[in-house]
Specification:
By secondary structure, the protein is α+β, with helices and mostly antiparallel strands. It has two domains: about 50 residues, no CATH class; about 160 residues, Neuraminidase, CATH 2.120.10.30. Strands 4-5-6-7 form a four-stranded antiparallel beta sheet, with no helix packed on it. A hairpin with a 6-residue loop joins strand 13 and strand 14. About 15% of the residues have low confidence.
């Protein structure tokens, strides 16, 4: 029986041929991505990559970006004599008063992109919702009603804010655009909806969970972001409150 012998030269040629094929394939992939106009950062999580791939399949994916290290923490403090909103670094350093007003400022809520903070203040006579830049500049009043407005919660895409208001006689859930326009009342009930609990957006921004006493005690409900399809989620004689969606 004859045995085949492979010379070192033949082996080297085979390796070079394989590398040539690999380079050609990579060039084709790169060209396809360039033509699609999309870019990807594949250093992130597998879940993020899969989300990007799914978007590419639908033709609507945006470039991936990751926030990196933890940012600042907003909080309320009375260290200067009355409740004010402060920010500090994630390690507790550089605490800074960013509201500086003799009225009560509280209930801070970061916008999803970290550039703005919604908050509640009594600086104009009653509790209203305001928004400011992350450094405290550019304060803008978003609500204007004789009733108390509070507990602002940003939608995941940062375009809307859900909140609790007593402007119509009792606490109800409302939603508005991030600039204060297009105010919409989501709940209409003689009971208290909200009840000192911030509304909670679903991760896709399609639903809002909230607390209501409409059935006798604190229970958790969910409805679509336009106020439709109200559903009671809990049924317990004890108090159920503070809903929080898993990301």
């Amino acid at each position: 029986m004859k045995t085949l012998s492979v010379t070192p030269t033949a082996t080297l040629l085979g390796v070079l041929f394989c590398l040539t094929l690999l380079c050609a394939a990579l060039a084709l992939v790169s060209s396809a991505l360039a033509q699609s106009g999309n870019s990807y950062d594949l250093r992130g999580s597998r879940a993020a990559w899969e989300a990007a791939y799914a978007g590419q399949q639908e033709g609507s994916v945006k470039p991936l970006s990751f926030p990196g290290t933890n940012g600042k923490i907003a909080f309320v403090s009375e260290r200067d004599g009355n409740p004010e909103i402060y920010t500090m670094n994630a390690d507790g350093s550089l605490a800074t008063n960013i509201t500086n007003n003799p009225a009560i400022d509280n209930e801070p809520a970061w916008s999803p992109d970290g550039t703005k903070i919604a908050f509640v203040s009594g600086r104009d006579g009653d509790d209203e919702i305001y928004v400011m830049n992350a450094d405290g500049s550019g304060v803008t009043r978003l609500t204007n009603s004789p009733g108390v407005d509070g507990l602002p919660a940003w939608s995941p895409d940062g375009t809307r804010i859900a909140f609790v208001s007593a402007r119509d006689g009792n606490d109800e859930i409302y939603v508005m655009n991030a600039g204060g326009s297009n105010l919409t009342r989501l709940t209409t009930n003689v009971a208290v909806d909200g009840f000192y609990n911030r509304p909670a957006w679903s991760p896709d921004g399609a639903k809002v969970a909230f607390v209501s006493t409409r059935d006798g005690n604190d229970e958790i409900y969910v409805l679509d972001a336009d106020g439709s399809n109200l559903t009671r989620l809990t049924n317990n004689p004890a108090s159920d409150r503070e809903p929080a969606w898993r990301p």
